[in-house]
Write a structure and sequence with these properties.
There is one protein chain. By secondary structure, the chain is an alpha/beta fold. It folds into four domains: 1-95 and 282-309, Rossmann fold, CATH 3.40.50.720; 97-274, NAD(P)-binding Rossmann-like Domain (Rossmann fold); 313-440, D-3-phosphoglycerate dehydrogenase, domain 3 (60s Ribosomal Protein L30, Chain: A, 2-Layer Sandwich), CATH 3.30.1330; 450-524, Alpha-Beta Plaits (2-Layer Sandwich). 34% of the residues lie in helices and 24% in strands. It has 17 helices and 22 strands. The strands form four sheets. It has a seven-stranded parallel β-sheet with strand order 8-7-6-9-10-11-12, with helices on both faces. A six-stranded mixed β-sheet has the order 14-13-15-16-17-18, covered by helices on one side. Strands 2-1-3-4-5 form a five-stranded parallel β-sheet. Helix 13 (320-340) packs parallel to helix 14 (362-373) and helix 14 (362-373) packs across helix 15.
Length: 524
């Protein structure tokens, strides 16, 4: 079997692939059309961040069985198209977490002491001692958004510097955080109390622009902001304005919305220090991820063993076809729960009934956890999801029953939050006809896909029509609309599948419709 390594990879990784009996071609720097023309020859593709595995590339890869990403982020791979073609996508979580955490601390210290600016001045043979006076980090408050593996490393290193660490992460229990000496707070507290703010979440539709104009307005004057996670989490235009106004005293950036940047105004700002996406760029990290991805690809192609896959659980090839539809259902239910049910997660009860109860359900549970955590955790896949749940002190309870009253199969999830208990049920009507069939007390039959609006409202006439008019005026097409209610003229739920995203302005207009209780945009 042939493997294409299309990005620079440590020689140790290439050697492991060859020793595993695979025919390896190392061909880096390919243009998209060049890659498209040759990808049909290969069963495996190994990439880092430079190669973009787009739908065109994947469609042309008629023999491809696996894509291995030497690193955590897989935003350069179209996972949905790969899954459609039955291609397993693997990453290497953990291989570069220490490196990225250390880089964040290095950036914070360099920003604080103005080391890059002072170095540039010295190289111009200037002695501007007074110009580059800095500050201490001792006893300052560091606010961490996202307390996953990298966020936790940053927290421990900051504590070693005698900083006060607070964090926002809705998927970690207060007890677990307290054992690490970290105070868990909400986002408003992060903004109001922090002298430094660093983000360590994945880039998703939910986190894109998470730190924007409104967030900067809530921050302390003179705050310092860091992003060594993913470009786009911090709104670059809003950050530029906050730097110019003096609200933000300085920013340290390793990642950008466009790489390399198309508009260099932000990175050339005198109060910004920056690096070209170097968070994982150490010899140790690159060797670790190269070895890991090579071993995983050999295991899969030679032995059928799936490890660290982001779109397939670690099950045998004979079992996967039977449970794959339920895996997709469970993952979508997890994504729905994470975006619609607010509060700090404490316990998850999952009950499998009917046909699904006869299958191997642990991989389905893992898929639900993956969906749940992927909204906020940067390095989640089918292997890391249960570890994340354990590390965060979240109890997972599975049960089975042979019969279900209404449907031939059902997955029921009860989540205990600090705000109360919420319920979600899903069912498979036929292969890949996935439905959410009950939300709390509301019977409903929802197709969970793409862009959705979840609207709670009083069950009174006229609400649906007014919402439809607002969407129509915004040129947003309704694909499907589902309704549920607890009782006549009680409270109701409206779920709308849309063909495009909804702007905040449109959401605000819907919130102002009489009888509307809440509006949430959900991405599945």
């Amino acid at each position: 079997m042939k493997i294409l390594v299309s990005d620079k990879l440590s020689e140790k990784g290439v050697e492991i692939l060859k020793q595993g009996g695979l025919d390896v071609d190392v061909n880096t720097g390919l243009k998209p059309e060049e890659l498209k023309n040759i990808i049909g020859q290969y069963e495996g593709l190994v990439v880092r961040s430079a190669t973009k595995a787009t739908p065109d590339i994947i469609d042309a890869a008629k023999r491809l069985k696996v894509i291995g990403r030497a690193g955590i982020g897989v935003d350069n791979i179209d996972i949905a198209i790969a899954s459609k073609h039955g291609i397993v996508v693997m990453n290497t979580p953990g291989g570069n977490t220490i490196t990225t955490g250390e880089h964040t601390i290095a950036m914070m210290m360099a920003l604080t002491r103005k080391i890059p600016q002072a170095t540039a001045s010295m190289k111009e043979q200037k002695w501007e001692k007074k110009k580059f006076s800095g500050r201490e980090v001792f006893n300052k408050t560091l606010g961490i958004i996202g307390l996953g593996r990298v966020g936790s490393i940053v927290a421990s290193r900051a504590q070693g510097l005698k900083m006060n660490v607070i964090a926002y992460d809705p998927f970690i229990s207060k007890e677990v955080a307290e054992k690490q000496g970290i105070e868990i707070v909400d986002l408003d507290n992060i903004y109001a109390r922090s002298d430094y703010i660093t983000v360590h979440t994945p880039l998703t539709k939910e986190t894109k622009g998470l730190v924007g104009k409104d967030a900067f307005a809530k921050m302390k004057d003179g705050v310092m902001v860091l992003n060594c996670a993913r470009g786009g989490i911090i709104d670059e235009k809003a950050l530029f304005e906050a730097l110019n106004s003096g609200k933000v005293a300085g920013a340290a950036l390793d990642v950008y919305g466009k790489e390399p940047p198309e508009d260099w105004a932000l990175v050339t700002h005198p109060n910004v220090i920056c690096t070209p996406h170097l968070g994982a760029s150490t010899a140790e990290a690159q060797e670790n991820v190269a070895i890991a991805v090579a071993e995983q690809i050999v295991d899969y192609l030679k032995n059928g063993i799936i490890r660290n896959a982001v779109n397939a659980p670690s099950v045998g090839p004979e079992t996967l076809p039977k449970i794959r539809p339920y895996i997709e259902l469970a993952e979508k239910m997890g994504l729905f729960i994470a975006q619609v049910f607010s509060g700090r997660l404490e316990k998850i009860n999952i009950n499998y009934s009917g046909d699904v109860a006869e299958l191997e359900v642990p991989p389905i549970t893992v898929a639900l956890l993956k969906g749940l955590f992927s909204v906020i955790v940067n390095d989640v896949n089918y292997v890391s999801a249960p570890i994340i749940a354990k590390d965060r002190g979240i109890d997972i309870i599975e049960s089975r029953s042979s019969k279900t009253e209404t449907f031939s199969n059902m997955i029921e999830v009860r989540v205990d939050l600090d705000t109360g208990t919420r319920y979600l049920a899903g069912s498979l009507f036929k292969p890949y006809d996935i439905r959410i069939v009950k939300i709390d007390n509301y019977p409903i039959e929802v197709i969970p896909e793409k862009n959705m609006l979840v609207i709670y409202n009083k069950d009174l006439p006229g609400t649906v029509g007014k919402i439809g008019m607002i969407l129509g005026e915004a040129n947003i097409n309704i694909a499907r609309l589902f309704l549920g209610r607890d009782r006549q003229q009680g409270t109701a739920i409206i779920i709308i599948n849309l063909d495009s995203d909804v702007s905040n302005d449109v959401i605000q207009k819907i919130e102002e419709v009489p009888n509307t209780i809440s509006v949430t945009q959900v991405f599945i």
